[in-house]
Write a structure and sequence with these properties.
By secondary structure, the protein is an alpha/beta fold. The N and C termini lie far apart (56 Å).
Length: 444
């Protein structure tokens, strides 16, 4: 046979194999849908009374920022939202007519009233999620353990001085730093510390460590940093005496020099990370794409954290690089998972990426370290009455499950894993890895 025909046949066979791998094995998908997931990252809303507003679902909420254009997956016309309506609320139509959507909203409101404080737990059940790690300033009504576990924010601890210069860098940061300043004041108030201690040693002893211990006592299972919204993730090694001198120089007043203030932040970040390790609180860090038209994508590259992850003093601290470097940095994440104390999750990518695209990212991670990858939705409130956190939760959970099925089916087809191993990995990603990381007991 002519060589050119052999080449053509080989190309066709490879293309056919690739196309087959994109459709998940039906039996495997049935298993995947039956697994009750652990959601490693989310922002669920608490139940509110009439006229009440929940502004604690994120330390740095995106809603007040100038809006940016949604991508294809997050636009209302995404067919997954129509599927969510049908699954969650029994929507019987294939359109978005005004009358039908009005009826949908009435159904949602009725179920919310009927479920009362149990509503958020009811939604989790519909999403196939057993436990959700709630990234919130504080928990609240309707968000009870074991269905919801608290992950508080600790960026505010890194910025104890005057933040006017940092806040002036972009309109987004002006809003964000105002939030961080209020949050640090709240932490101090709850600790009974009226004014900032005059020394760095006093600040860490009277504010930082007690706040972390308070969060642990209030059943926090991890702590969270959104630092990429406030500065670059390159927290370099910082000398303690130098940091103490910088703190003492500006604690009584004045706007810190940016370079000096960065060195103090570097020191405080590593101090917090070390204390979190002592308290067995994993440290969650936002990596990859973020909201707002001024977000610095280059500053969110997880590789910037390498000196932190390589610090021998922090090897007892577990780092979870949230969102897996969503966007341009997912490949880097595969290599960072080599670090013994580094994990990642699928959150954010589950609502930004299509199942097919996410399956490619996920397969890359699973070919490296399947025991380091966790399911996550990044569901959040603040949408429209017809597409809110419930629909976002369904879309993200379903995208994750479809992508996982596609990735594992492709690995089976390429003889990388057995069918039995695929089932094991599915359970690991959806619940087992999180249960092991947080030291819980798997009762299923």
């Amino acid at each position: 046979m002519d060589m050119k025909y052999l080449v053509a046949i080989s190309i066709l066979l490879a293309a056919a194999a690739s196309a087959t791998a994109q459709k998940p094995d039906p039996g495997l998908m049935k298993e995947i849908h039956e697994i009750r997931a652990i959601d490693n990252h989310s922002h669920p809303p608490r139940v509110v009374a009439a006229g009440e507003r929940d502004d604690e679902y994120d330390a740095l909420p995106c809603d007040p920022l100038d809006p940016t254009s949604p991508n294809t997956m997050t636009r209302p016309e995404n067919p997954q939202y129509l599927a969510a309506w049908k699954y969650l609320w029994g929507y019987q139509y294939n359109d978005h007519s005004e009358a039908h959507v009005r009826s949908l909203i009435e159904t949602k409101q009725r179920i919310r009233r009927d479920q009362g404080d149990h509503y958020a737990t009811w939604v989790l059940g519909r999403l196939g999620i057993e436990t959700e790690l709630a990234n919130r300033v504080a928990m609240g009504r309707g968000l009870s353990a074991p269905q919801f576990r608290w992950v508080p924010f600790d960026d505010a601890l890194l910025f104890p001085l005057n933040n006017e210069r940092l806040a002036s860098e972009t309109p987004d940061r002006k809003f964000f730093f105002a939030r961080e300043t209020m949050l640090l004041e709240r932490y101090r108030r709850e600790l009974g510390v009226e004014a900032l201690p005059q020394t760095l040693a006093g600040y860490t002893a009277r504010v930082v460590t007690p706040e972390l211990e308070r969060q642990k006592q209030l059943a926090a299972v991890a702590i969270k940093f959104e630092a990429a919204y406030l500065r670059s993730l390159d927290f370099e090694p910082s000398d303690g005496p130098d940091a103490a001198a910088i703190y003492a120089k500006y604690v009584r007043g004045g706007v810190p020099d940016k370079a000096e203030y960065l060195r103090l932040q570097d020191y405080l970040f590593r101090y917090v990370a070390g204390e979190a390790g002592r308290l067995t609180l994993p440290v969650h860090i936002h990596t990859g794409a973020g909201c707002g038209g001024y977000f610095s994508l280059s500053g969110s590259n997880p590789l910037l954290l390498e000196s932190v992850l390589n610090d021998p003093r922090l090897r007892k601290t577990t780092f979870v690089l949230i969102h897996g470097g969503a966007g341009p940095f997912t490949r880097e994440m595969s290599y960072l998972l080599m670090k013994p104390n580094v994990y990642t999750d699928l959150s954010e990518q589950t609502w930004l990426e299509s199942p097919r695209r996410l399956s490619e990212v996920l397969r890359d991670w699973l070919e490296w370290y399947p025991e380091k990858v966790m399911f996550g939705t990044d569901l959040f409130p603040g949408g429209t009455p017809e597409i809110d956190w419930e629909e976002i939760g369904w879309q993200t959970a379903e995208t994750a499950r479809q992508a996982l099925g596609m990735a594992l089916t492709g690995m089976i087809a390429d003889d990388e894993i057995t069918r039995e191993r695929a089932s094991e990995i599915a359970r690991m990603v959806l619940r087992g890895n999180a249960i092991k990381l947080y030291g819980w007991t798997d009762r299923r």
